[in-house]
Amino acid sequence: MVVPESQHEHLNQNDSIGQDTTQQCRPSLCLSQHFGGPPYLSTNGSVASLNTRIDNEPQEYTETDFLLPTKLYGASTYSRSMRAKDARSSGVPAETVCSMVLQILIPFLLAGFGTVSAGILLDVVQSWDVFQEITEIFILVPAILGMKGNLEMTLASRLSTAVNGRKTESAREMWMLIIGNLALKQLQATVLGLLAALMAAVFGWMAEGKMPFNHVVVLCSTSVSTAFMASLLQGVIMVGVITGTRRLGINPDNIATPLASSFGDLITLAFLAGFSQWFFSIMDFYSYVLYLVDLLFLCLIPLWIILTSKHPASLILLRTGWEPIITAMLISSIGGVILHKTVSDPNLAGIIVYAPVINGIGGNLVSIQSSRLSTNLHLNYSSREVPEDRRGCYSPCTVFFGSGANHQSARVLLLLVIPGQFIFLYTIHLMKGGSTLPSLLLIITFLFASLIQVFALLCLADCLVHCLWRRGKDPDSYAIPYLTALSDLLGTALLSLNLFILWCLGDAGSL
Length: 511
Prior knowledge:
By secondary structure, this protein is an all-alpha fold. Helices cover 75% and strands 1% of the residues. It has 21 helices and two strands. It has helices at residues 5-13, 15-34, 50-53, 77-88, 97-125, 129-133, 137-164, 171-208, 213-247, 252-262, 264-282, 287-299, 301-308, 312-320, 322-343, 351-380, 397-400, 405-415, 417-431, 440-470, 475-504, and strands at residues 39-41, 47-49. Strands 1-2 form a two-stranded antiparallel ribbon. The protein is globular, with a radius of gyration of 27 Å.
């Protein structure tokens, strides 16, 4: 960049000339924007569009020039970061504590009632023939439900960040982003469904010492079909929710992730129960149907790869986004083993109703916080750059104590646990036909377990999101799968311990 000395001195000596020039150029600036080219102001006071002047522009620019194009002016990393902050700071709708609570509360309650319904449904279908004969399906349940965190919530978080970052202003860009992400999600659902079934079969074989091959085929067909159909339906709904919330001026980070799971558990369990019972009923007479189903979904994989490759962001995730979701699936499968062992004990069989609730609510709350933290980092910090208070030793106090919006949201989410879970616990009791409140001991132990779970998850979310960002990884794609899987593991383990304590104290009848 050539900076003529005389011209630079002239500008520094006469500020009024610069001011007059700026005022005279405002009309031209608007015209340049109207015709599509980003405007800039040269040292001689003229305004021109980048499209018409970038190739023919000479060579003489100063650092005082207004809005120099990036191609022409090699700014420092810091200055680019600061300009990005200024340009994007208006992307997230301003929110007060009251508006934050209202935006979170309604989806939270909807999600909670969805998980309650899923728990009641699971309690009903556990007596079906397929669940009695192929008990490994109980190992499959947390892994299949965990795909909501691996896929749906991750999609919601990515799209929320894109919307808040004004990356969907162009209709063409928006549809490329949506199609690429939905195709990627279908591909991931197919692969994860197959892996989850194989993991359930392996764990079942390790636990019982045998695993009939036809049971493995039923598990694979059920898992892949459930994952594919549930993912497709929820993905389309999620796209509509996020685009709708943005038009209404609502922060999608507060709405999208809980709505992604509001009826996700119920839909997924309904597909799981329906497909498993159907495949089990035709297993001995039309076994070829099961093989054809698996083959059909596997043959669609090249199509999803082609569609995913159309968008650069989804193409990157196609290459690098498998680690978190596969690891999360393994973690959820461990939770499934705990559930399978607990359900096999008649004294603790009541866990089946509460497992989707404690796991789902914990995952919903931590996903909101993770999505908010990720959006904040995307909009306000360059890659590998973290806030000052996250550069030293980590402390849980930094999660909840502070004046920032994310400190407030962490406190709000933690405070929602006790009243929310009490409502859901009472709802379960009513739906099971109870005319009185659950026992006091059940209420206390269940609420305490839920509080410990959510507190630990919020602390883990804050640490994990900032660690991933510091390492140059996108928290939108990495954090939520890990967090929801840990929610499944912690929730199932704490709930099993909770019900074991109740049984030891002679209060098992309250289950």
